[in-house]
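Sequence in, structure out. First:
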Amino acid sequence: MIRAQLELRIPNMTAYETITAAKKSAIPDDAAMLRAAVELTKDISAARAAIYWPDCFLSAALGYGALAGAVLLRETWLAVVCALVAALALYRALLFIHELTHIHRNALPGFRFAWNVAVGIPMLTPSFMYENVHTLHHARTRYGTAEDPEYLPLALMKPWSLPVFVAVAALAPVALLIRSAVLVPLGAVIPPLRRVVWERFSALSINPGFRRRPPEGEFGRMVFWQELGASTWAITLIASTQFIGWRPLLIALAVFSLTAVLNQLRTLVAHLWENDGEAMTVTAQYLDSVNVPPPGWLAPLWAPVGLRYHALHHLLPSLPYHALGEAHRRLSAHLGAGSTYAGAHYGGMMPLLAKIARSTMGRR
């Protein structure tokens, strides 16, 4: 009966909440949508180096240049403008870590190494903190369950959980600095500490119950060199305060805090967070996720590198970010405004924040 109800309503829905009051895990797969997603995007599935390299590293260069301006300029308003530009540009460069987890290892030779040197290690967020973690979030049987490192049923939690979720992100840069400068070096000589640091503080996850498994093989060797680079850089940053004072480091940490808060807000509206822990179909996962398609012009700033199409990304995880806009246009034209595909489209960050907040209000 539930399946019949869902199949009747899904083709005509315009928003996720119109499906039914049935459990989200009971939503059946829309075979037509899944088939169209694959068939209509075969010719745009290759990652293009001519887009990845300049987009990422010009963003990083702009970010570091603006950060230098925030540190060196004495005019307060100019320094603040530079800080905002730095936060947005470095945010875009940092989010290429998401692409690194999905593109084939041989697709962009040298890109992973260059990204870690230019972005991941300087921002104390090397790629291992997301690799072999984010893919668990896309696993068919893990999404939205207790084994998903990137899922919390935020819409089903208490109202205070949302501001706490965002506020914690402001402390992330300081926590990363302490991790790399203090905890990782200590862990090198104290095995129990090393195990705790790896299990609990070495992944970009939001699920406090997630415990990371020890790295092995080639990935373990990559982790070693990335950890060494991040620790060396973190210690150098702290040592530099003895020669140039604390001001440059504190400004940089403030800029990175703004970046982290922006990313946390994006994370907060990337899903509806309505699953109660049971395994979900691919269609249910899609409808628990969010697209913010054009014409909204702010979305590329707070959800860059294709993340405005986060629901579509859950349909096609390996599709490169630069192809998502075209994939969206093709699927929208093929499936129509009243389709399941349209059920994951929303108008912007503020309506989504309001929707999730309303969901929590009844749980005081």
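Second:
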Amino acid sequence: MNIRRIATLTAATLAATSLVACSSESESTDTAAESNEPIRVGTTDDNLPEWEVFADLAEEKGIEMEIVPFSDYNTPNDALVQDQIDVNKFQHLAFLAEYNVGAGADLVPISSTEIYPLALFWDGHDSLDGIEGQRVAVPNDPTNQGRAINLLAANGLVTLKEEGLLSPTPADVDQAASKVEVTPVDAAQTTIAYNSGEPAVVNNSFVLRAGLNPDDAILEDDPNSEGAEPYINIWATTPEKADDERINELAELWKDPAVAEAVQESSGGTAVAVDRPREDLEQILQRLEEENS
């Protein structure tokens, strides 16, 4: 297959190369998007089987690509801004909006991929019966914490002091009016809370790693609702490369049935395919950026 991987990039690597990137901004250089060089694709999950299926399809289409793996969620967008890669696929719109606002960047979505529902698990329980008065562990990263709290609020378990918040925090919860107590923990620790007997909202990335059965979820958010739009996963690039035919053709290959089947297998059947026009994605991103400003 016509696929190459290069060494994992980290924040330290990008910091060391940022001066070079900045000093060459005014120079006229060819990028992969403008030449026959491989398209450099950044991701944090290149170990998943769907990438091998995807690579085979790209080879059949005669598109050369080079996978650039990252060890954390912060650096793939930095790498895109610094022209270390041409496109990335690892994030949803809410994450991109937070990055753009925080970094003063203008990265854009070019294609949608999937939504992964966020779910509540409680060992030994198949309903909410008896949950009143319990502590519920939720991921403490800004995006998933807000999404988890909104999941609890939508199901009457917590009451928010103000409705309509995209990313509520525990401080936004009216504890006296709520049925459960929200306990923020590191996302990886939610499964530990689950194993200790506490109800826990577990990020999809950790569900399968912890050996949980997605079918055992008591609650999950509705991926088809308007409230789920911020969590549409995307391919993202810079405005300068957004209309490049090779990059867009590559991104569209992710929608091939063979890739979709592999995604379902690796996600335990939880992934929900999303096919939204770029204009919709841009509008959602703009709205989220305004809310984050």
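Remark: The chain has two domains: 3-116+228-292, 119-221.
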